[in-house]
Specification:
Blueprint: H1 10-29, H2 31-60, H3 69-87, H4 89-116, H5 123-145, H6 147-175
Helix pairs in contact: 1-2, 1-6, 2-3, 2-4, 2-6, 3-4, 4-5, 4-6, 5-6
Length: 177
C-alpha cells in the first residue's frame, strides 16, 4: 500500500495562522520583554548544557583524573556564562547586538568584494550587488553602534512579519476546500 503525502487540514492551517497572529501581536505589544525573555532563555539553556556536559563526563569517568580538564573547564565556562546571561539579559542583549552588527558589516564587506570580481558583462548585476553590500554595511554599522535602538526595532519587524504570515495562513485556510 502506497502512503499518501501528508496534507494539511483547514483546521491546522487556521490554527497555525491564528497562533502566528497571536505571537505577532504579543511581540508588538511588548518587544523589549520578548527580547529579554529570549536572551534569558538562551542563558538558561547554556547553563543547563554546561551542567549536562560536566555530569556526562563525571558519570562516565572511572576516576577523577580520567576526566578531560578542558571539557570540565569548558562546561564550567558555559555554566557561568549562561548564568550571567540569564541574570543580566539586558546587558548581554546589547553586547549580542553589537557583535551581530560587526558580523553584518563583515558580511557586507564580503558582498562588496564579491561584486567587484563579477564578470565585466554583468555590469548591472555588479551594481546591484555593490548597492546591496553598501546597504548591508550601513545596517551593520547602525546595529553595532546603536544596539539599544536595534533591540527595539528588530522585535517590531519580527512582530509585523509574524502578523503578516499569520494573516496569509488564515487567508490560505479560507481558500482551502
Amino acid at each position: 500500500m502506497v502512503e499518501q503525502p501528508a496534507t494539511y487540514s483547514r483546521f491546522s492551517v487556521t490554527m497555525t495562522g491564528a497562533l502566528l497572529v497571536f505571537l505577532g501581536v504579543a511581540v508588538l505589544a511588548n518587544p523589549g520583554g520578548v527580547t529579554i525573555f529570549v536572551v534569558r532563555l538562551v542563558g538558561f539553556a547554556c547553563a543547563v548544557f554546561g551542567v549536562t556536559i560536566a555530569a556526562g563526563h563525571l558519570l562516565r569517568a572511572h576516576a577523577i583524573d580520567a576526566i578531560p580538564f578542558e571539557e570540565l573547564a569548558g562546561a564550567g565556562v558555559l555554566l557561568l556564562l549562561g548564568m550571567v546571561v540569564a541574570v543580566f539579559p539586558q546587558g548581554f542583549a546589547k553586547v549580542l547586538f553589537s557583535v551581530l552588527g560587526v558580523l553584518i558589516v563583515m558580511s557586507g564587506l564580503a558582498d562588496i568584494a564579491r561584486s567587484r570580481t563579477m564578470v565585466a558583462d554583468d555590469d548591472q548585476k555588479e551594481r546591484v550587488a555593490l548597492r546591496i553590500g553598501i546597504i548591508t554595511v550601513a545596517t551593520g554599522i547602525f546595529v553595532a553602534i546603536l544596539p539599544s535602538a536595534a533591540l527595539r526595532i528588530v522585535p517590531l519587524i519580527c512582530g509585523v512579519a509574524l502578523v503578516i504570515d499569520g494573516l496569509s495562513e488564515l487567508y490560505l485556510a479560507l481558500r482551502m476546500e
